[in-house]
Amino acid sequence: MHLFTHDEEQRKPDMNIKKLLICTLTTAMTQSAFTQTLEKMQWFNEPEQWKIEGNALTMGITPQTDYWRISHYGFTVDDAPFLYTLRGGEFEVKVKISGDYKTRFDQACLMLRIDKENYIKAGIEYVDGKYNISAVVTHHTSDWSIIPLEKPVPFIWIKAVRRLDAVEIFYSFDDKEYTMMRNAWLQDNTPVMVGVMGACPDGDGFNAKYEHFTIKHLPDMRRLQWLEKNKAQQ
């Protein structure tokens, strides 16, 4: 039987505190690895009014702006505010979105963009007095799909998962249960601008808020498949 000496008894609380500090630091480092710092992101079409506080962006959406290419309406616009970071490879990104939508086509979205002819935006769009979960996928020309909501919601979570040449888009009202709303093609092995945007095509602008924007790196699917096939040779 080992009997603790007085010095050993004194060291036990110190060791427990050290373990607790290590666990706390590890958790913080893990969380920070997943959180994209908004202050380090870039503007495309910077709006006149915006601020960042505590990993939350609030911005006044510029009036008479949007992203759309050609189809149905016959015009192309590429002038709405978009705060983004550049990412390569495969990843998961999500954000909490809210806004005081007022006018037809007011929208606040998560956006993935390669260039002016290839982008995906998904979020809430206000149409004919109703909230809709909306997705626009553009490859030279734009398409539009919506899920009408029975009543307004205070916020929505949008998540996108980029794997190989596809992006799966999900929505949630609680950041726990996610429902897939779209699976869209997007060129793989190409850097992507990832971030948040807002548009007000018909109105005088509105305020939108984007919170808890995070990006999680995913290991490349092709490399995982290669490792699986070649693990016997290791």
Secondary-structure map with pairings?
Layout lengths: L5 H29 L7 E3 L5 E3 L3 E5 L6 E3 L6 E3 L3 E6 L2 E10 L6 E10 L2 E10 L2 E10 L1 E8 L7 E8 L2 E7 L6 E7 L6 E8 L7 E12 L2 H10 L4
Antiparallel strand pairs: 1-6, 2-3, 3-16, 4-5, 6-15, 7-12, 7-16, 8-9, 8-15, 9-10, 10-11, 12-13, 13-14
Descriptive terms for the model:
234 residues, seven-stranded antiparallel beta sheet, 48% strand, globular
Model description:
The protein is an alpha+beta fold and 234 residues long. It has helices spanning 6-34, 221-230, and strands at 42-44, 50-52, 56-60, 67-69, 76-78, 82-87, 90-99, 106-115, 118-127, 130-139, 141-148, 156-163, 166-172, 179-185, 192-199, 207-218. The strands form 3 sheets. The protein has a 7-stranded antiparallel β-sheet, with no helix packed on it. The longest helix is centred in the first third of the chain and has 29 residues, at 6-34. The radius of gyration is 22 Å and the shape is globular.
Mean of residue pLDDT values: 89
Strand order of the largest sheet: 1-6-15-8-9-10-11
Helix content: 10-25%
For the biggest sheet, the summary is:
7 strands, antiparallel
- The total count of strands amounts to 16
The portion of residues forming beta strands comes to over 45%
Brief summary:
With 234 residues, the protein is an alpha+beta fold. It has helices at 6-34, 221-230; strands at 42-44, 50-52, 56-60, 67-69, 76-78, 82-87, 90-99, 106-115, 118-127, 130-139, 141-148, 156-163, 166-172, 179-185, 192-199, 207-218.
